[in-house]
Amino acid sequence: MYFEDTFKEDLVAWFKVNQRSMPWRETSNPYYIWVSEVMLQQTQVDTVRSYYERFIKHFPTIEALAYADEAHVLKLWEGLGYYSRARNFHAAAQEVVTRYNGEIPPNPEQFAALKGVGPYTQAAVMSIAFDLPLATVDGNVFRVWSRLNDDIQDTALQKTRKAYEHALEPYVQQHSGTFNQAMMELGALVCTPKAPMCLLCPVQHHCESFDKGTVYERPIKTKKLKKKQYKLIVLYIENQNGDILIEQRKTKLLNGMWQFPVYEEDIVDRKLEEEFGDAITIVEKDIYQLKHQFTHITWNMTVHHAKIISDSDKMLTETRRWITPEDKRLYTFPVPMTKIYEVMQ
């Protein structure tokens, strides 16, 4: 970057005037800041607001979170996705209560050793809550810094993150939390991926990509591998009383959450015969279709409506149960299953 002493000054001055109002920016409580940073990973700010406020209301202290039942935590997280974040955060809160008497350690190494705390979360919480000199490097910062420097390093590589963290060190020696938030806010509001507003950028005269006309070519990032596609049949099964059959997942993905019975399309007929025999009948096929994207896989789901024609108790297993429509709120469902439920009501 064309080094000028005014870069940080220009950026922070813009941030103080233009930053969005967010509840987690109105507190110095490290626990609340940590909550927000965990929720904001892979999630839009507008989505997080209501979840953050509800989560804080139910778990106002880290002790309240630590002593909560995991099912309660996941229920409040329902709809945010990436549920491992909630599980890890819950476990980390328990560690803080057990090992640090409920006080979040201001030591970066100790904090990074907690469950689920990676380099970004470490830097964000430590800098914003304790003003420690750590640089946050998220997607926004990758984009801003690569454009400022017309940098051609592959931002998908870990070594590029390390290089950026090192390059940003001079700017976080003082007021690190403000600088880090300003960089991220610039990326979110001005230096956007597809339509950057360069003419409104407060640090435009520091930007090499703007000077060279390469803004739309930065950052450079290798494409991810194509996601594995799964074709799934979802059965919405009702008994004679209008109760709905649900099952609990026992797999790494969405472990412990509840869903309607799900089968891969190419084996559904065999699995239905094995598990239900002639106890169910398909009332209507292809009622609803939806696609749900995870980080590495895609679910392409087709919903069939089925009804029990014999003793519904035979359908129960260790991981299956009947619920009334009103009971659905007591269980944590992944987003696609909630969408199916809403369609079927």
Average predicted local confidence, pLDDT: 93
How would you sum up the global shape?
elongated
What is the straight-line distance between the termini?
Answer: 57 Å
What is the tally of beta strands?
A: 7
Write down the Rg: 24 Å
Q: Structural class, from secondary structure content?
A: alpha+beta
Q: Unreliable runs, pLDDT <50, ≥5 residues? A: none
In what order do the strands lie side by side in the largest sheet?
A: 4-1-6-5
Element order: H for helix, E for strand: HHHHHHHHHHHHEEEEHEEEH
Major sheet details: 4 strands, mixed
- Treating each run of at least 4 consecutive H or I residues as one helix, how many helices? 14
Structure summary:
This protein is an alpha+beta fold.
Structural account:
- The protein is an alpha+beta fold.
- 42% of the residues lie in helices and 15% in strands.
- The protein has helices at 6-18, 30-40, 45-58, 62-66, 70-77, 84-100, 108-112, 119-130, 139-148, 158-168, 176-189, 208-212, 268-276, 335-344; strands at 228-238, 244-248, 258-259, 262-264, 280-293, 297-308, 320-323.
- A hairpin with a 3-residue loop joins strand 5 and strand 6 (297-308).
